[in-house]
Amino acid sequence: MDITLDRRGGEPLSLLPVIALLQAHVPDVSQPAITDIFKPLGTPAELAKTAALLVNYVCLGIFIVVAGLIAYAIVRYRQKPGEDIHQEPPQVYGSNQIEIAWTIIPILIIFVLTGVTARIIAATQDAKLPKTAIKVTVVGHQWWWEYRYTDLGIVTADEMHIPVSDKSEANAVDITEQSVDVDHSFWVPELTGKTDVLPNRNNHMWLDAHKPGLYLGNCTEYCGTQHANMLIRVLAQPKAEFDKWVANQQKLAVGANGYGTAVASASGPAGSVHLQNVSMGDGAPAELGGVPIPRLTEDKRVFESLACVNCHTIRGTPAIGKFGPDLTHLASRTTIASGMIPNTAADLRAWVDDPQTVKPGCLMPSMKLTDKQLDQVVEYLQSLK
Ligand code: CUA
Questions:
Q1: Which residues line ligand 1 (CB under 6 A)?
Q2: What dihedral angle (degrees, nearest 10) is formed by the CA atoms of 95, 99, 100, 106?
Q3: pTM of this prediction?
């Protein structure tokens, strides 16, 4: 299976070696991916850019002065024809002016940089978030991210949805960070600076996004074998779209009672079928999005008979495991395996069949399912819109 996908829709990644390294396995999910660290689109990232630019300009100034003096000395004092190569140049000791200058100037530079940095850190940390700010607990796991929307009653993984913050409406995400195992670090370059995610500790940060789009990030603290594939995807949506996503995520799993009802979706892609959590009564449709209901029920029964339920939760079903990602609305996500591969039937099947070939070292074992079981599990998971 080819998992090295070009997420830029044909544009050669070779032009962007650094970004390619950083995002080697980000699949193409036909959303504009935003990764330019020099174009911040969130308030904390904009503030950080101000400090970073100042430091860089000061360093550039120091470099020009030092390199210039070295170049001048090399040219001015090079050996001239006829000079005695064994003669030592004149030795100069102690110039009060020079020594005072090279003590005072660096102190002043450090003083200015410290002051500016402290002001920006304080401005970021003390920022008053709008009342509409959404509370999200970001939980680092080896090697995926869990997003708990504590006030909204949503638990999801791999993809964090947030409302855009623009002139029409200020929004922000108030983030608490926790880790269930080792140290991780949460970084979405366009939106905010890094914050470590540590076990036995609540760290705090916040972010906002000024433009809709998909923002990519990485875990930036080495946390084990699949650290590099612990990708972050933040999808900033207009508020109305975000609210729609929330409403869907808040529902119990589709077919929580073993059944569902098919409803034409106004929001989904043309021809898609939106599954709602409604028990099948008399006169319920015979199929869901082309899948006959008895088959889906059988799929669900098979899934629930497997050890999958010990690690995964599907709200409204007997699956209540907490170790792996919550799968309640798995089919509404564009990627799986922490943003590593697209959430298609083929990729999902390969993943369930043997996660170790897709993401070596990951903590999900192969359940050694038969081909039939694989088909059934994938079909069931794909119904969890
Ligand atoms: Cu998590 Cu590196």
A1: 140, 143, 184, 219, 221-223, 227, 230
A2: 160
A3: 0.77
